[in-house]
Amino acid sequence: MSSQRERAAFIDHLKSHGHRITGERLALFDEIFEQHRHVDAEELLAALHRKGHRISRATVYRNLDLLVACGLVRKQRLGQRRYLYEHIHAGQKHDHLVCRSCGRVVEFVSPGITAMQREICRAHGFSPDHHQFQILSLCAECVAASETQPSH
Amino acid sequence: MSSQRERAAFIDHLKSHGHRITGERLALFDEIFEQHRHVDAEELLAALHRKGHRISRATVYRNLDLLVACGLVRKQRLGQRRYLYEHIHAGQKHDHLVCRSCGRVVEFVSPGITAMQREICRAHGFSPDHHQFQILSLCAECVAASETQPSH
DNA sequence: ACCACTATTGAGACAATTTCTCAATAGCGA
DNA sequence: TCGCTATTGAGAAATTGTCTCAATAGTGGT
Ligand SMILES: [Mn+2]
Ligand SMILES: [Mn+2]
Ligand SMILES: [Zn+2]
Ligand SMILES: [Zn+2]
Q: B70-91, pLDDT tens digit by residue?
């Protein structure tokens, strides 16, 4: 699998921080690196249970935070109530376009906008490296729907 | 006060949609147009109670949604768990830089980035008009703190 | 000004999601 | 292998927003 490097980085991080390498942690790592979409904690928990792992909800939440701290996972709200998680491959990043009405999410990469957000971060003393970027708008379908039935 | 125009627009909106003009609605309007920062529903409720209004939590939430529907108020998550609200003056818009660690929020206006997000919206069939834009990063203080005490 | 109609409100129950508690378990260094 | 203690599991608790429904109060018509 192509997440060997990240798996090793996770184990290194655990060791170097005096954390233990537990079955639950590795199972969660494997699960989220198998998922190629935005998943929430509940989905990960269910998937792990389906595969026969006995792991609790609290452990999933706790170790997701750990993966985020390692920089291996992104945790974000994308319009929904729940936090969504996605693994990060080799530091590649992308940004999100979120429909505020139906929740649809589109990923995009825009070097131009990345450069500009870096500049804005710098101008205000924020880290240009740890940014995350969202555009909340309305997708074509939802715009069409709202034009058919003007407001409510 | 400088929110006369918006207050009138609110009342017009209520009338034209067959909604009633209630004391609670006007009190909430006045309160949020007095606040010049991002406030959550709980803060608005407390402020109203402090001023002697008897208004319930449910009414605050319901009528905040109404103000959002009128386009007089913005409702957004800015890194925090709660929704934050801010009134809109004469359609002026700005975007937000949010510290993911301490929650600090900086407002900015960047014509360049606005043009680019418009372009990205258009490229993906999203409405270029209803966008909202956030950069989540780390403020200078939090970057300094995390460098002193590497991770947790 | 008064009435009747019904939209709106208040109080608290409820729902959804995440965090906390603490006794039991299981990594890990010696 | 042993002992220490970080981690886990199960469920309670916390947090935040929504829903319910009887009581209240705007509104249009008289
Ligand atoms: Mn993504
Ligand atoms: Mn703002
Ligand atoms: Zn949509
Ligand atoms: Zn900060």
A: 999 999 999 899 999 999 988 7
Structure tokens at A144: 């069409």
Residue-wise pLDDT for A25-59, tens only, equals 999 999 999 999 999 999 999 999 999 999 999 99
B27 to A13, B22, B46: CA distances (angstroms): 53, 9, 12
pLDDT above 90: residue B27? yes
For a pLDDT cut of 70, what percent of chain B falls above it?
A: 96
CA distances from A144 to A140, A141, B75, B125, B132 (A): 6, 5, 22, 11, 19
Distance CA A77, CA B42 (A): 21
* Domains, chain B: 1-90 (1.10.10.10), 93-152 (3.30.1490.190)
A97/B112 CB distance under 8 A: no
- Beta-carbon separation of A139 and B126 below 8 A: yes
Q: Does the CB of B63 fall within 7 Å of any strand C atom?
A: yes
Max Cα-Cα span within chain A = 59
Nucleic acid strand C within 7 Å of A95 CB:
no
**B28 CA, C3 C1': separation in Å?**
30
Alpha carbon B47 to its chain centroid, in Å, reads: 17
Please tell me the pTM assigned to this model: 0.91
